[in-house]
Specification:
Helix 4 links the parallel strand 3 and strand 4. The protein folds into two domains: about 160 residues, Endonuclease, Chain A, CATH 3.30.870.10; about 160 residues, 2-Layer Sandwich (Endonuclease, Chain A). The longest helix has 17 residues. The protein has eleven helices and 15 strands. It is globular and about 55 Å long. It has an eight-stranded mixed beta sheet with strand order 8-9-15-14-13-10-11-12, sandwiched between helices. By secondary structure, the protein is α+β, with helices and mostly antiparallel strands. One of its GO terms (biological process) is lipid catabolic process. This is phospholipase D. GO terms for molecular function: phospholipase D activity; RNA endonuclease activity producing 5'-phosphomonoesters, hydrolytic mechanism.
């Protein structure tokens, strides 16, 4: 009886939305070592009917590939969308193996299909900043991921996937639509897809302008001028603004981090072996941003991307603590 009560209590505590974070490891790994990578493997192994996924590419993650192959062997339909250039080439070395096993569609253009999401049985979404690679799900980079089983959120992602897979529409050829806000059992989730939604204008700008206490930004690329100026204005009205930026991105001539520092915003450039690869923000113990979109003009206006803005205090506090853990690991001066 005690065991039954414990099991019932455990089930009650499981939230519809879960947040997974990863402090970067010292080396790339072909093993799927991250919490969000292990969660993805569980979801794939639990699939009964269909898996639809859109990823930038695949490299040295045999556990994910083998899980997908097992799913296909037990009768699960597997559909994939991946990035490619006009010559059919992909940045990641093992992406070609997907074509051998599954139905795969690629964008075939100079702009980027930059998504990283999986839909399981049209019931569960896995989405985040991590590529399916030795540095992403393998753990070398700092990344995050979110899962949800909210029906409307999942259906919006399925519609986005189907437009790419079935209609072969990418980037600005996709049907224009605004964002949608969904109330789940635990959260309020706003769903954005670039470039059909103007993620910055319709979501991020308002979130920054409404911030009262703090805005913490772990981000790979930050070259979006309007977003950066909103962060400066938030700092001037007394909001605690902190940014962790990737070192390679800091070397980009369009990076806004120097201007942000000049205006008093605290910016640390990571000193990890890997990358600060998150594309995210946490605000006032209330909201998080998660997804594939870097804070760039291309991410907002050209690339195929997905972004979630989630109002959920439990997730926000967890993400704040993750940010501060990374912040403490980085020296003040670089």
């Amino acid at each position: 009886m005690k065991k039954l009560l414990f099991l019932l209590f455990t089930v009650v505590l499981i939230a519809k939305e879960q947040l997974f974070v990863h402090v970067p490891s010292s080396l790339p790994s072909s093993a799927t070592n991250t919490s969000f990578g292990r969660e993805l493997l569980v979801l794939i192994d639990d699939a009964k009917e269909e898996i639809s996924f859109a990823i930038y590419g695949l490299r040295e993650q045999d556990a994910v590939l083998e899980a997908l192959i097992r799913a296909k062997k037990r009768g699960v339909t597997i559909k994939a969308v991946v990035d490619s250039d006009s010559h059919g080439n992909n940045y990641y070395t093992d992406t070609h193996t997907l074509y051998k096993h599954f139905s795969v569609v690629s964008d075939g253009k100079s702009y980027i299909m930059h998504n990283k999401f999986f839909i399981i049985d049209r019931k569960t979404l896995w989405s985040g900043s991590a590529n399916i690679s030795d540095t992403g799900t393998g753990g070398y980079n700092a990344n995050n991921a979110v899962t949800t089983d909210d029906k409307r959120v999942v259906s919006l992602y399925q519609e986005e996937f189907d437009e790419m897979f079935d209609e072969k529409k990418f980037s600005k050829k996709k049907n224009k639509r605004g964002y949608e806000r969904i109330k789940t059992e635990d959260s309020i989730i706003s769903v954005y897809f670039s470039p059909k939604s103007n993620t910055y204008e319709e979501g991020i700008k308002e979130l920054i302008r409404n911030a009262k206490e703090y805005i913490f930004v772990p981000i790979f690329y930050l070259t979006h001028k309007e977003l950066s100026y909103e962060l400066m204005r938030a700092k001037k009205r007394g909001v605690d603004v902190k940014i962790i930026l990737d070192a390679s991105a800091a070397g980009n001539k369009y990076s806004m981090h120097k201007k942000l520092r000049e205006e008093g915003v605290e910016v640390k450039v990571e000193n990890f072996g890997g990358k600060m690869h998150c594309k995210s923000m946490v605000v006032d113990d209330s909201h998080i941003i998660s997804g594939s979109m870097n804070f760039t003009k291309a991410g907002n206006s050209t690339n195929d991307e997905n972004t979630l803005i989630i109002q959920n205090s439990t997730l926000a506090i967890k993400y704040k603590n993750y940010f501060l853990e990374l912040w403490q690991k980085i020296p003040d001066k670089q």
